[in-house]
From TrEMBL:
Membrane topology label: Multi-pass membrane protein
Compartments reported by the entry: Mitochondrion membrane
Keyword vocabulary terms for this entry: Amino-acid transport, Membrane, Mitochondrion, One-carbon metabolism, Transmembrane, Transmembrane helix, Transport
One BP annotation, GO: one-carbon metabolic process
GO molecular function: monoatomic ion transmembrane transporter activity
Name of this chain's protein: Sidoreflexin
Taxonomic source organism: Heterocephalus glaber
UniProt cross-references to InterPro entries, sorted A to Z: Mtc (IPR004686)
Length: 321
C-alpha cells in the first residue's frame, strides 16, 4: 500500500454539506455520544494527525479512513475557529446524554415550583456552557461579560417557566406537561443571543471560498444566531412533545400506577431515544459553514470586499452550533 496522498480535502467534512443528507451524516458522527469515551491521549493523537496532514505531513501508515476518523474525532472535541479543546459537557457529543437526563427530569418534575426552578436552572446552565463552547469566531470574551450573560439568560429562562406554569395551573394535566417545552423554546431565544452577545456587538469573521478572512460582520452573526435558535428549538420538539403524550397515557394504566418509580427512568429513556435522532438531524438543518450575499453585509465591509474583489457575490462564515 502506497503513502496516502495530500489530495484529501479535510478542510471540509467528508460528506457534501450542500445537501441535508450530507450534513446529517456528518453530524451523526460529530454528535455520537461514544466520542465522550475517548481519552485525552486519543483526542491529542487525532488532533496531531489532522494538523500534520494540513501542514503537508502524512503520518506513516495512515489510511484515508483513519484520516477521516481522526477528523471526525477532532471536529467533535475542538472548536473550529480557535482550535481549543471544548469542555466535556460543552461538546455536541454530550448533547444526547446530558439533555436526555435534564429534559427527562424537567418533564417528570414539572408540578412543583421548586423542582421547576431547579431543573430550569440546571438546563439553562448547561445551555450556557454549550452556547459559549460552540460560539462562532475566535474573539475573546471577558469573565464579566460571561457572568452577566449567564445571569441574564438563566433568570429569563426560569421566569419564563414559572410564568407559563402559573398560566396553565387550571388547565388539563396534559397541557401542563408541555410547559417545559414552551419554557425551553422561549429560553433558547434568550440564552443563545445573550451567551453569544459579543458576536452581535463586534460581528463574526467572514471569509472567501478559500477561507481567507475578509472582515467581521454583525449581519452574518444575526443570521447565524437565528439559524442556531431554530435548530435548538427543533431539537427539543420531539424530545419534549412526544414523551409527554406517551407518559400521560401510560400513567393512566394499572402497570405504571402500581410502579410509579418507573416513571422517571421511562421518561428519560423516551427522551434519549428522540434525541439520538433529533440532535444530528436538527444540527443539519443549516450548513455550519453558512453563506451570505455580499449585498446584505454592512456598507463598510461591502465596500472593503468590493475593493479587493469586485466580482465577489457571496462570503462564508461559521454560524456555530
Amino acid at each position: 500500500m502506497g503513502k496516502l496522498s495530500l489530495d484529501v480535502n479535510i478542510q471540509e467534512p467528508r460528506w457534501d454539506q450542500s445537501t441535508f443528507l450530507g450534513r446529517a451524516r456528518h453530524f451523526f458522527t460529530v454528535t455520537d455520544p461514544r466520542n465522550l469515551l475517548l481519552s485525552g491521549a486519543q483526542l491529542e493523537a487525532a488532533r496531531n494527525i489532522v494538523q500534520n496532514y494540513r501542514a503537508g505531513v502524512v503520518t506513516p501508515g495512515l489510511t484515508e479512513d483513519q484520516l477521516w476518523r481522526a477528523k471526525h474525532v477532532y471536529d467533535s472535541a475542538f472548536h473550529p475557529d480557535t482550535g481549543e479543546k471544548v469542555v466535556l459537557i460543552g461538546r455536541m457529543s454530550a448533547q444526547v446524554p446530558m439533555n436526555m437526563t435534564i429534559t427527562g427530569c424537567m418533564l417528570t418534575f414539572y408540578r412543583k415550583t421548586p423542582t421547576v426552578v431547579f431543573w430550569q436552572w440546571v438546563n439553562q446552565s448547561f445551555n450556557a456552557v454549550v452556547n459559549y463552547s460552540n460560539r462562532s469566531g475566535d474573539a475573546p470574551v471577558s469573565t464579566r461579560q460571561l457572568g452577566t450573560a449567564y445571569v441574564s439568560a438563566t433568570t429569563g429562562a426560569v421566569a419564563t417557566a414559572l410564568g407559563l406554569k402559573s398560566l396553565t395551573q387550571h388547565l388539563p394535566s396534559l397541557v401542563g406537561r408541555f410547559v417545559p417545552f414552551a419554557a425551553v423554546a422561549a429560553a433558547n431565544c434568550i440564552n443563545i443571543p445573550l451567551m453569544r452577545q459579543r458576536e452581535l456587538q463586534v460581528g463574526i469573521p467572514v471569509t472567501d471560498e478559500a477561507g481567507q478572512r475578509l472582515g467581521h460582520s454583525v449581519t452574518a452573526a444575526r443570521q447565524g444566531l437565528f439559524q442556531v435558535v431554530i435548530s435548538r428549538i427543533g431539537m427539543a420538539i420531539p424530545a419534549m412533545a412526544i414523551p409527554p403524550v406517551i407518559m400521560d397515557a401510560l400513567e393512566k394504566k394499572d402497570f405504571l400506577k402500581c410502579r410509579p418509580w418507573l416513571g422517571a427512568p421511562l421518561q428519560v429513556g423516551l427522551v434519549g431515544f428522540c434525541l439520538v435522532f433529533a440532535t444530528p438531524l436538527c444540527c443539519a438543518l443549516f450548513p455550519q459553514r453558512s453563506s451570505i450575499q455580499v449585498s446584505r453585509l454592512e456598507p463598510e465591509l461591502r465596500a472593503q470586499i468590493h475593493e479587493q474583489n469586485p466580482s465577489m457575490e457571496v462570503v462564508y462564515y461559521n454560524k456555530g452550533l
